Structures are given as structure tokens and as C-alpha cells.
Amino acid sequence: MTDRTAGSVQMADGPSGSVEGPGGSEEAPETQQTPEVRDGQQARDTGDSQETADELTMETPEKAAASPASAGEAESSDEVVAVSTPSTPPADSASSSNNTGQPTQLSAPSGDFIAEDDEIPEAAGEDGTDAEAAPAPAPPSPAPASAARNAATERLPAGRNVADVPRGTRFADRYRLEDKLSSGGKSVTWRAVDEKLRRAVGIHIVAAGSEHARSVTAAARAAALVGDPRFVHVLDTAEEDGLVYVVKEWLPDADNLASLLAVNPLPPHESYEMVRSVAEAMSVAHRAGLSHLRLDPENVLRMHTGQYKIVGLSVEAALYGHDTTDAARDDTRAIGSLLYACLARRWPDGKAFGLPEAPRNGTRLCTPGQVKAHVHGPLEAIAMRALGHEYKNQPPFDTAEDIVTALLAIPPVLPPEPTVPVSAAGADFDDEYTPAAMLDKGGPGHRPPTAFRPAASPPPPALGGGVGQAVKVLVSVIVLVAVILATWQIAAHVNSDKDDKPDPAPTVSTDNDTPGPAPAPPAAEPKPLTVRGAYEFDPYGAGQDVDGVKNSYDGNPSTGWRTKSYQDPQLQRLKPGLGVVYDLGETVDLKSVDVLLRFAGPGTTFEVRAAPENATARPNSAPGGENAFRTVGTVHSESGAEYTVDLKEPVKTRYVLIWFTALPQQPSDEFSQPGLKNGINEIGFTG
In angstroms, rounded to a whole number, what is the distance separating the alpha carbons of residues 457 and 557? Predict the structure, then answer.
């Protein structure tokens, strides 16, 4: 398989120190000359050399005076240098070489072909005698080998460094740098804004003259052709102003595997989903001739939807380098390390990525089941075989396709069943007598027991003759008299109540004791609501002032939460909005919101949005997550900084979003430079 991974791409500098002779390529002499060459030089120095009148070999004084080392050394891959023979003077750099290694001679007659840039020395005198050739202008001396290897570096503007690229720099008149995320010396990673499509993107930047620049570009172009959705896509790459940049997808609602493993291992169904997604994605890449070579917990992301994505296909290896003789096998070992970490929360190759080192039994790596209890057996076997170990006489895996085949051979690992619902009174439902439980008792084919029914006793014998008929008539008369007496008593009671109470209450009793409508309770007095927590809601960015969120409801109006400073004339051109979500602890009847802004004056627009009544978990902060909130009020600032939003009717909600859609232009302060910005110094809720 041909590996087109940039990490294995080696850029050749061209042949150095080689010469071309009649017999092919051989090493050029470095410091020695033959006696014939030295004699030839002496002859030229004294003017005793003989040249024919019809042919004149062009030669420069600089070449004739060149040191012995430079006379036989090839300086560039673009030149073929001839080795001088005793009968032929060494050719200078102005002479071209033929395939035999002898210098090509240029004829003096004007009818012969001469290159445009060549200059012909003065011809022999009119009397036909040889005349000394006028020296041609000296050509530029060949660049040394070290300069050829660093030719790309000379293209970098003087003093340009990737670490010094300022915020606000634009590439391709489109990608504007916003937040520097990391700086690794060889490269710098930024979060940027694609101004044409109005979306956030990630950008890697390397110096165009660095040793990795060309391999990074080649890797990005190759990775961009892989359309599998399980890879973070490369969107663009180019070179501009001495810098090479690679533009990739930006995923603000994703967590890398290292952060997911910070406290506990992943549950079995999450580990299964991770290894299945990564193995299938790398199988696609290997079939395309690509590999990753730097698969680790920081380059595997889990979206909030549960989908896993891989960052840096080919590009990571090109940025940081990776020597390998079997790229597919190295990626397979990396997948095994990821699965081992998910099952045991240990890293097989030592302490790294915030994970402790996996223990060993002598020289053999302990299995995840020896480190943690209740490890899924089939997944443990796949992890050990992917790491290159035999497991219960099963051979190790060599490719990601082997892992995919093994996963298909085991039953899918599904998430656990949902928890038992809780009744309104707070007690668990007793599912012992539910229909499903009754059917499950006794195993398949078991029929639920029939209800107990006492045996029917035979009816008493009927009274014979007219005695029985008389008894029936008597009983009927007694029942009729009882009904009449009861009716009369009820009517008398109702009439007495009317006489004693001429002004009855709104609730009227009837003869069947049916209650009337209850009076409406008095309206509850508004009371302040307590904020139980808050978090930033910036689905189209990387965050604003995370530590300042708690200051927006601490009761101190001199502190608060603030936004970043934006340089665009309109916030909507950069992102739909940003804000803070406040948690009121439980579903309440929200009636009004009081907001004290950081900056007074016009230019600020914010909306009060409420989450659905049945929302019991914090809403998703992915792009488009703001649409899960319902707008219940809007404020366009005028002159002041304090605003009260009175709702038309109480809204039942637990989570309230203050969503800024426009920010005012403000001067620089101790936190940021001039630009569009504002904040919340204090907020209060009434219910």
C-alpha cells in the first residue's frame, strides 16, 4: 500500500556533491587535483595555452583562479559539472556540459547557435593570429549545499515569526484570527472567523521556510479528499506572506477523550462506540493511502450528540513528525491504546494525557480486567490484540480493518435501560404487579395465575306457596316507605336552612351535596428568585469571561461578567449572538427580570429567553441551541444601564438566557481594546 501520509513524506534537496562523467555519477574530489589539472592552470596563468583560430573555449578568470576544492565539487542539484582531463582545460561555470562530461565549446563564427544570455569574447585579430579572449562577465557563483537546503527559508520575510502573528490578521482576505489556542514552536493554532460564511474555523500556521511547511501542505490537501464525517474536515490551505496555513472545521460542542477520562473510565457502551467509530474511520483512511500516526486522547473528540470525530488526519504527523515503517500497524496500536484507556483509565505507554501509567506484570502489560473490576470481556480482548499482544491464544491485530471485523463478531454493547420512573408522591412505582412483570415471572411461556374466585354456594330453597309471595310484598312496602321518609327529611332540612340563612354564601348546596365553584385565591405577592448557578452560552465562539459569570449575580454591582471586544462594525456579521444562562434551581413562575449592564448608552440589544417548562437539564450549547429557548422580552438600550423586563404573563421555566444580539462601540479599558463590547454587572429575577 502506498502511504501518502505527510508524516512519511521526505522532501529531497537534490543531489549534492555528485558529478556526471562518461561512466555515470561518481563522487567529486573535494580537496585534491591531478597534476594535469595543476599544469593546465599554470599554462593559463602564464598565457602559454594554445587555442585554434576556428574554435575558442569560453572561460572566466574567476573559474581559472578557483580553489581546487571548488573546481571539482558540484554545488547544486540543477548543475552537471564535468571533470577535467589532462588534455582539456577545466570548464568554467559559463560553459555548458554535454552528456560525456566534456565542456561544450562555442564556435566563434556568428552563424553558430549561441544562447541569448551568453557573451562572446573578442575574436582573433584580423591577421588570423590568436588573440587573447576578453573575459566574460563573471556568472554568479553557485550557492553552497546548505543554502540550497534552506532556500525555502529565504522566502520568509525578514523578522517574520509564526509566534508573532497578531490577532486580527487576515488570510485570503477571509479568515480573521481571533483567539490564539496554542503555540508549539513549529506551529501556532488559532480560532478564526470565516468572514464570508460567518462561521468559526480553526487555523494551523507554520513558517513557509520551515522543514515541515511543504509536507504540511501536502498532508492537508490529501486529508481534504477524505469525506468521511468521522474526521474533522480540512477546509482550505495555502501560503501567504511567508506563512503556510491550514483551515479546519471548528467544533465548539465537542470534548476530547482526555477530558472525558479525567475522573473515571468510560462505560462499556461508550467505549464500544468510540473504538467502533475510530477503527471504521481509520480503515477508510488506510484504503485511501493515508494514516494518522498521532492518534491519542487529545485528537479524538466526542460531540454532544455522542458521535466521535478524529482530528488531524495526516496533518498532525506532518506538523510534529513521526518515523514509521508500517503506518497501518502504528495506527492499529494507537487504537488499542485508546480502547485500553477507556476501559481502565490507564495509558499503556507510560504516564501521559493526564492518565496514570498502566501496570505491568514483569514485562507484560496487565489487562484492563486486572486493573479495574467489571471490565467488558470482549472489549478487553480487542484492546489487548490491537496493542500487539496475544489474548487467550488469539493473534494480535495488524490493521484497523482487523479491529472492525472483530467488533462485528461480538454483540453490540448497548446503553443500560433507563431508570425506573418515580411517582408524583416521590415513591418508586412497585413494578412487581405491572403487566410486563407478571408476564415475565416464571420465564418464557409462563401464564399469569388466574384470580382467586370462591366457589359459588347454591341458592337457598324458595319458600313455597303464598308465604313467599307475602314476604316479597312486605319487603317492597318497607323499602318504599323508607325512601319516602328519607326524601321528606332532606326537603325539610333544606327549607330550614333557607329560613335561617336569607343571604346564602356563593357556594350553594344541593340535595345531592354537589360542591359549587371555589372562590379564586388572592394574587400572590411578587418575590425575588434565587439564582442557583449560571454558565456562558457562546455556541459560535470559544467563550467570553467564564470566571466572571458568578460576579453577575453576587449582589455587588461593581463586578460582573463581560464580553470580549469585537472589531467588526456589527456583531451579527460574526455570530448570531452570545450570552449567559441562569439556573433558578427549579421550575418557577417568572414575572420580571432586572438587568444592570456594564456600559450605559445606546447600541445594546438583548433578549430574555426562557427554556421549556419541562427542561430539567442544562440546555445544549451547540450552534442553534439558542433556538431551544423562547423569547419572552427584548430590550434596546437607550441612555441608561439599568433595565427591567416585565413579562406580559408569568412564564414557567427553570433556565433563563440573556442573549445579546448587538453590542455598543466602547473605548479600551483594563480588560480589552476598543471595539464592540458590554456585559452584565448584576441581574435579578422576580416570580
Answer: 84
Q: What is the pLDDT of residues 336-378, one digit of tens each?
A: 999 999 999 999 999 999 999 999 998 899 999 999 998 999 9
Burial class (CB in 10 A: 0-12, 13-18, 19+), 559: middle
Q: Grid coordinates in use for 351? A: 504516564
Element (H, E) at 596: strand 578-597
Helix then strand then coil, in percent of the chain rounded to 5, is 25, 20, 50
43 alpha carbon, distance to own chain's centre? 72
Long-range contacts of 459-463 (CB under 8 A, 24+ apart): none
Strand partners, 201: 192, 249
Distance CA 629, CA 608 (A): 9
Q: Calculate the CA 176 to chain-centre distance.
A: 18
What confidence score (pLDDT) does residue 407 get? 96
Q: Coil, helix or strand for 495?
A: helix
554 in helix, strand or coil?
Answer: coil
CA separation for the pair 126, 288 (Å, rounded): 72
Q: Is residue 150 exposed (0-12), middle (13-18) or buried (19+ Cβ within 10 Å)?
A: middle
Quick check: 156 and 209 in contact, CB under 8 A? yes
pLDDT at 215 over 90: yes
- Is 341 within 8 Å of 275 (Cβ atoms)? no
Residue 414, by phi and psi: left (phi above 0), alpha (psi -120 to 50) or beta?
beta
pTM for this model (two decimals): 0.44
Burial class (CB in 10 A: 0-12, 13-18, 19+), 372: middle
Nearest Cα to Cα of residue 11 among 211, 243, 150:
211
CB neighbours of residue 593 within 10 Å: 23
pLDDT for 221 beyond 80: yes
**What's the pLDDT at 653?**
94
Q: Note the pLDDT tens digit of each residue in 279-290.
A: 999 999 999 999
> What pLDDT does 17 receive?
38
- Strand partners for 230: none
**SS3 (DSSP) at 188:** strand
Sign of CA dihedral 609, 612, 613, 616: negative
**Among the listed residues 212, 70, 208, the one whose alpha carbon sits nearest the alpha carbon of residue 145:** 70
Cα–chain-centroid distance for residue 633? 34
Task: From residue 311, give the alpha-carbon distance in Å to each of 17, 131, 147, 476.
Answer: 42, 72, 35, 92
Residue type, 140: P
Nearest C-alpha neighbor of 659 from the set 684, 625, 687, 682: 625
Q: How far is it, in rounded angstroms, from Cα 558 to Cα 681? A: 7
Lookup result for grid cell 472525558: 260
pLDDT tens-digit series, residues 60-94: 333 333 333 333 343 333 433 333 333 334 434 33
Which among 544, 569, 549 has a CA at the least distance from the CA of 559? 549
